[in-house]
Amino acid sequence: MQTRGTITSSNPVSCDRLRRVNFRHVNFNGVIKTGNIVVLDSVAEQVEGIFSELFKQRFPIHKAVVIEHYQGNDEASMVDNNTSDFNGRSITGGASWSKHAYGVAIDINPLQNPYISYPEEGSANILPPSSSKFFVNRNNNRPNKKQRVGMAENVIDVFARHGFIIWGGDWDTPIDYQHFEVGSYNFIHKLINQSPDSARQMFNQYVNHYNDCISKHIQKDYASKRTICINEVRQ
């Protein structure tokens, strides 16, 4: 079975460039909880903005604890329906660093938003496995079916407005519904090679560029605007 990787002995970002973000959220029972994730320092302010908006919208998050709680085991975190960011691991099935290892990728509600890979033609590997019965079908307007909450499709714009413009649900293979990330590796390397203040300014300019682009295309539907603006600002 293809795995999602575990924590590694080194990391492309020094520990002093990582920040813990604490935030309030509601769980699936409507109870207010405190969550925390670890992110790259230059994106921390915008990540605070993401979770502040999700809380205002009462978008439910099952739980959010740092990946050390699972000894860096990403699959264990997914099985526990844990929302997370930093994990010093390689990309799935590869040797290069995942964007999680830079603290610039967020996985949200893995149970409601599974990771689906295709190791062989005609087969599918669904993580966490319990998602397969209830969340592979992403249509949320179905006859005689209740609306499902906590699904990533409902908050794509929230993440994008704060710089996490890439959504894994847009990919062909794998399809990673839980996953949101910052643009290119080239841009990420620019952020980590700048001083924290300069990197934060650079990231905020990137965010403003995207939002200005969205505002400019007032005649287009949101999906079209999003496609245009991601292509325009992705570095």
UniProtKB/TrEMBL annotation:
Domain Peptidase M15C span(s) in chain numbering: 93-182
Gene3D superfamilies recorded: 3.30.1380.10
GO molecular function, one term: peptidase activity
Entries under InterPro entries matching the protein: Peptidase_M15C, Zn_M74/Hedgehog-like
One Pfam family it belongs to: Peptidase_M15_4
Membrane spanning residue stretches: none
Protein name as catalogued: Peptidase M15C domain-containing protein
Taxonomic lineage of the native organism: Bacteria, Pseudomonadati, Pseudomonadota, Gammaproteobacteria, Enterobacterales
